[in-house]
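queue> holo job accepted (adenosine-5-diphosphoribose)
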Amino acid sequence: MKTNLPEAINKAAEILSRAKSVVIFTGAGMSAESGIATFRDPGGLWDRFDPEEVGTAEGIMSFLSEGGDKIREIIREVVESFGAARPNAGHLALAELEKMGLIRSVITQNIDNLHREAGNTKVFEVHGNLFRFRCLNCEKKFFVDREDLLGRLRDIAQGAGPLSLEGILERIPRCACGGVSRPDVVMFGESVQELDESIFEAHQSDVMLVLGTSGAVYPAAMVPQQARKAGAILIEVNPTEKVFAAENDVYIREKAAIAMPLIVEELKKKKRK
Ligand code: APR
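queue> job finished
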């Protein structure tokens, strides 16, 4: 069923213009236009890599025992897509909404740091952030410069011979305390981050913009459900599937990078009236 785009955009802008507390919830589809593959679309990451292997510590260790070629392949994919990735028009539209004082926070499942780079300041990253590291010794968290990290990953990917754990550890950033650190991303089987804060945000919302997610993974997928439980209207943007939007919500069958700028434009027109 093709939505009537102008009508849906106008309805979404109307709802947002009257909202008191808007919270954003995003998934991988938000970054598709930045060149980062989603997980479950055809040809997505989980079509090419097994999450049980790639997304778990055990999987990484078993790759190492086989010489590490698979790890180098995954790192090449990360460097390729994350290296060129910049905030797209959808990210920038969300940053604009924050500047207009229209949104309370962004809750994202994405680890690509693009919401922060676009300019959103209150961002809850339930699956962590690839450019933030956590010291295994003192637990301190610290951000790593994008180009510095990508350079280190390139070194690992381009190395010759069998890849060892030491070979990886000596290339990833050390904590100021000298401790070994790891990317502050949530692997399968590990607990998510900032879930309580995200649920609190959902409970405070009267409108939740749900952008680019299949809702396939819990507990993250609880967030829009909690917003609805709190009485929020959901505005869902997804070009192929309606996951959360119900009868009195708004569903926009479009890419986030196209729909979000149109919504911001419509909102500005309403504000000028
Ligand atoms: N704009 C908006 N939505 C899009 C776009 C786009 N340009 N392109 C694809 N989509 C939609 C797809 O239709 C799909 O519903 O984005 C969704 C992407 O779904 P997934 O690939 O499952 O990504 P996500 O929902 O973020 O997955 C959740 O699963 O494997 C874990 O940790 C991983 O954070 C991820 C979590």
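queue> Residues 1-34+87-127+192-273 form a domain with the Rossmann fold fold (CATH 3.40.50.1220).
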